[in-house]
Design goal:
single chain, about 260 residues, alpha/beta, Rossmann fold, six-stranded parallel beta sheet, about 40% helix
């Protein structure tokens, strides 16, 4: 059975993608449930998470796998594949949060001044409500938020089930607002040449607010071994259109890969 190692987006534990995974029954899909919550905490950028991913692949798999990641998880997959290409048969990056050189330069200037919160979702994430009396209360609360309004019902159910954890007073976010905000403040601001040697595919959302036209052009110029594929959706398209996402994966990428 072909194997996929998946890396989740910031704020969404691996099990939040269960419905998406269920649409790929012919693949064995593994993942780190919550990146950075074990022996590899965030340390300046996402490289520590890539080390955690590498260790997990080494422990789980004996042959090269398909690496797939969404958002920050896509960047983690890219870094890991650059460091250990022998572990990967192919990489698939879903709307990766790796910006163009011009954007990253501006962010480098703003970061020492503590101003990244103004141009990233960090400020909003840090203020996110984290505690609820019950999952039912959390469901009602999140269903009214624009972030979740377009989620497929089953993906929303997965988030309520796995994006929250039991606490003494009810339920709380599985990934704390502080950790989520810190990741937004520590996105990858360098793009070493080794990243550009990675072979794979990028599926980006046409309506994504984190993969703009300038980012697309930068990827096209700097990643000669990456095929760029557009998807009619926003940054969270794997949650909003899981069946169409899988259809795109199957038609554009997976059907072309040798079975291992």
């Amino acid at each position: 059975m072909p194997k996929i190692q998946f890396s989740h987006a910031n704020g969404f534990p691996g099990s939040s993608y269960n419905y998406l995974f269920s649409q790929l029954p012919e693949y064995e899909i593994t993942y780190v449930e919550k990146m950075g919550h074990g022996d590899y905490p965030l340390n300046g950028d996402l490289r520590n998470y890539a080390a955690e991913l590498i260790e997990d692949i080494e422990n789980r798999h004996e042959a090269p796998i398909i690496g797939m990641g969404h958002s920050a998880g896509a960047v983690v997959t890219l870094i890991a594949a650059a460091i250990r290409p022998d572990l990967f048969q192919h990489v698939i990056l879903l709307d990766p949060v790796l910006f163009s050189k011009r954007k990253r330069y501006a962010m480098k200037l703003l970061k020492p001044m503590g101003l990244l919160d103004k141009i990233t979702p960090a400020a909003r994430a840090s203020k996110r409500r984290a505690q609820f009396d019950s999952r039912e209360q959390a469901r009602e609360y999140f269903s009214k938020k624009s972030l979740f309004r377009s989620f497929h019902p089953e993906c929303f159910n997965d988030y309520i089930e796995h994006g929250l954890t039991e606490t003494e007073s009810g339920v709380g976010l599985a990934i704390s607002p502080e950790v989520e905000a810190d990741i937004f403040r520590n996105v990858l601001l360098d793009a070493p040449k080794c990243l550009k040697k990675v072979k794979g595919s990028v599926i980006y959302g046409k309506k994504s607010d984190l993969f703009a036209r300038s980012d697309k052009k930068w990827w096209q110029r700097n990643f000669p071994h990456m095929e760029l594929i557009s998807f009619d959706g926003g940054h969270l398209f794997p949650f909003e259109h899981p069946k169409k996402t899988v259809q795109c994966l199957q038609e554009k990428i997976l059907s072309k890969l040798p079975l291992r």
